Amino acid sequence: MLLFFEVYDLPEAERSPWVLVYTTNTLIDAEMFRANLESADIPVQVLSQVDSTRMFSVGELAIVKIFVQSPYYEQAKEIIEHIESSNDDSAIDL
Fold first, then answer.
1. Which residues pair with 44 in a beta bridge?
2. What is the pTM for the complete model shown?
3. What is the number of domains present in the chain?
4. I need a labelling partner for 49 at 20 to 30 A (CA). Which of 8, 32, 55, 63 fits?
5. Could you list the residue range(s) of the whole structural domain that residue 72 is in?
6. What is the 3-class SS of the chain, one letter each residue?
7. Residues whose CB is less than 8 angstroms from the CB of residue 79 and which lie 6 or more positions away in sequence, other chains included
8. What angle do CA 47, 37, 6 make, to 5 degrees?
């Protein structure tokens, strides 16, 4: 999925399209992923589609999308997967 270009005055061959790397239903999770990706010098855009006027927090009315520029897609995906697996490993089984 292509989104937009960061710099419009670059020649088309030098533009990097933004691609969807992750979706979540909480803005807090998206901002955590954004912070981790930015600390790895990956350009990140977060698009929140959460309907805050009606306080919906589930389903299609609460999607937050994380986009990165296409050259960073694989690296971003690895970082996100590592974070998710770390969270799974730290969960306590009762």
1. 68
2. 0.73
3. 1
4. 8
5. 16-83
6. CECCCCCCCCCHHHCCCEEEEEEECCHHHHHHHHHHHHHCCCCEEEEECCCCCCCCCCHHHCCEEEEEEHHHHHHHHHHHHHHHHHHHHCCCCC
7. 36, 37, 40, 42
8. 55
pLDDT in tens, 13-65: 557 899 999 999 888 999 999 999 999 999 999 998 876 666 555 555 678 99
Radius of gyration of the chain (CA): 15
**Is residue 53 situated within a structural domain?**
yes
The answer to whether residue 79 is domain-embedded is yes
Residue corresponding to tokens 């969807």: 20
In a domain, 29, yes or no: yes
Looking up residue 57, the CATH number of its domain turns out to be: 3.30.70.790
Q: Rounded to an integer, what distance in angstroms lies between the CA atom of residue 36 and that of residue 71?
A: 17
**Residue 67 domain-assigned (yes or no):** yes
Residue type, 88: D
Query: Tokens standing for 3?
Result: 């989104």
